[in-house]
Specification:
alpha+beta, 7-stranded mixed β-sheet, 5-stranded mixed β-sheet, EC 6.1.1.14, protein biosynthesis, GlyRS-like_core, Anticodon-bd, Glycine--tRNA ligase
Length: 506
């Protein structure tokens, strides 16, 4: 059976070195996590698979790695300074602070019913309820207290403040003086770095529409209430594509990318039953979006967003371009008085300039890792009545591709052979190969089941030509154990390269 609670995954991640709490020895820093020896391998494998599919295997994509420190004007004209905010509310009794929509989402139905009536909002429309509360904050604070909204920390009704907006961007200062002119931000998303480099990429590559720019990188959001392990954190990593298309072709490409991303996540090992496409209703859309489909995943803590695919129209390039009045921009954008670049495309047939529309598939790396762990976590009862935990990750994503295990650790001829074999397999470049010499062979198998190692290769007496029957017919052969079936086969060491290449090929 898969992981039924988030606590199971958290315990496994700590015990086996996937993920640790950030700054743990000083009490931890909320909303930050450190990826351990196995976690960094899994995370890198997921990113490499995404990059391979979207950049190397396509003829219409370029890569980018933009800076994390971001000029204030970038985030002014993108709208982040004015709108990148979440609704926040405090409980005067416990002094706890919560994001309003998350707090309400977890309330009993009876409490929500009282709030809907108090704010005169139709029941079942949580987004509309939050909007009404932010429009009338004084009334909302009193209504929350009167309705008996529960504080998650205590389970008791709270005394709630009027809700207010909180901008989530991390500010910093560039240079030695902390003054307004030196203000900059840690980027809250990777997308803006792509938009402001549109002309640079276009000039350098001479791309024709449609084409995309892909980027993987860190982003930072000062979340009011980070929660659910690595699902909602303050420092995270994104895998984003901005795919530029002609106006009028945007709806086709939006549908295309929804299907493409659903298919890719299934190829990574997520079951279709756990992936739920959600078409955002009009009232939930971001101000820039014509349409957005979220790919939701059934995490142990509930059905939540794994990736969003948005039709952002010409808002983004239109916001950052100069000559806005000459380009027929359809989106509502701020008048840009600072940009020095025309972020537009000249039709090679007509010579007319226009601002492309953009389709944005945006996935969270950390959420992807959490989904993979949740999907792969399996608790099995063995025929002898014992139980094993196994991570049934795709072999290509597994942190360790194969473990080489000497059967007798006190026999130099066996351990030396195993170490040489490990080095030989490592040189193939297939990923991490581990020399495993801790514990007995049974414990080694269980340990590698638990961390998702697909193949365990055992070097034994037969391997070094010392079979019990006195023959050498099995010399230079090893046993290869399959993680999922626990079946073992015997292969000559010269066959291992072909075997592993075949099993680890996408």
């Amino acid at each position: 059976m898969p992981a039924s609670t988030l606590d199971e995954l958290v315990a496994l991640c700590k015990r086996r070195g996937f993920i640790f709490q950030g700054s743990e020895i000083y009490g931890g820093l909320q909303g930050t996590y450190d990826y351990g020896p196995l976690g960094v391998e899994l995370k890198n494998n997921l990113k490499q698979a995404w990059w391979r599919r979207n950049v190397y295997e396509r003829d219409d994509m370029e890569g980018l790695d933009a800076s994390i420190l971001t000029h204030r004007l970038v985030l002014h004209y993108s709208g982040h300074e004015a709108t990148f905010a979440d609704p926040m509310v405090d409980n005067r009794i416990t002094k706890k602070r919560y994001r309003l929509d998350h707090l309400l989402k977890d309330q009993p139905e009876a409490v929500l019913s009282r709030l809907y009536r108090a704010l005169e909002v139709e029941e079942g429309h949580l987004h509309a309820l939050v909007q009404a509360m932010m429009a009338f904050p004084e009334r909302a604070g009193g209504a929350m207290t009167a309705a008996g909204v529960l504080d998650p920390a205590t389970g008791e009704p709270g005394d709630w403040t009027p809700p207010r907006y909180f901008n989530m961007m991390f500010k910093t200062y560039v240079g030695p003086v902390e003054e307004e002119a030196a203000l900059a931000y840690l980027r809250p998303e990777t997308a803006q770095g792509i938009f402001i480099n549109f002309k640079n990429v276009l000039d350098a590559t001479s791309r024709k529409l449609p084409f995309g720019i892909a980027q993987i990188g860190k982003a930072f959001r000062n979340e009011i209430t980070p929660r659910n392990f690595i699902f909602r954190v303050r420092e995270f990593e994104q895998m984003e594509i901005e795919y530029f298309v002609r106006p009028g072709e945007d709806e086709y490409w939006h549908r295309y990318w929804v299907e493409e991303r659903l298919k890719w996540w299934q190829e990574m090992g997520l079951s279709r039953e756990n992936l739920v496409p959600y078409q955002q209703p009009k009232e939930e859309l971001a101000h820039y979006a014509k349409a957005t489909v979220d790919i939701l995943y059934r995490f142990p803590h509930g059905l939540e967003e794994l990736e969003g695919i948005a039709n952002r129209t010409d808002f983004d390039l239109g916001s950052h371009t100069k000559d806005q009045d000459e380009l027929g921009i359809t989106a509502k954008v701020l008048r840009n008085e600072h940009s020095t670049a025309r972020l537009a495309y000249r039709d090679p047939d007509t010579g007319k300039w226009f601002v492309p529309y953009v389709i944005e598939p945006s996935a969270g790396v950390d959420r992807g890792v959490l989904a993979l762990l949740a999907e792969a976590f399996t608790r099995e009862e063995l025929p002898n009545g014992e139980e094993r935990i196994v991570l049934k990750l795709k072999p290509q994503l597994a942190p360790i591709k194969a473990a080489v295990i000497p059967l007798a650790k006190n026999r130099p001829e066996i351990t030396q052979y195993a170490k040489a074999l490990k080095a030989r397999l490592q040189a193939l470049g297939l990923g991490r190969i581990l020399y495993e010499d801790t514990g007995n062979i049974g414990k080694a198998y269980r340990r590698h089941d638990e961390v998702g190692t697909p193949f365990a290769i055992t070097v034994d007496y037969d391997t070094i030509g010392q079979s019990k029957d006195g023959t050498t017919k099995l010399k230079d052969t090893v046993t290869v154990r399959d993680r999922d079936t626990m079946e073992q086969i015997r292969l000559h060491v010269d066959e291992l390269e072909g075997f592993l290449r075949e099993k680890l090929r996408w």
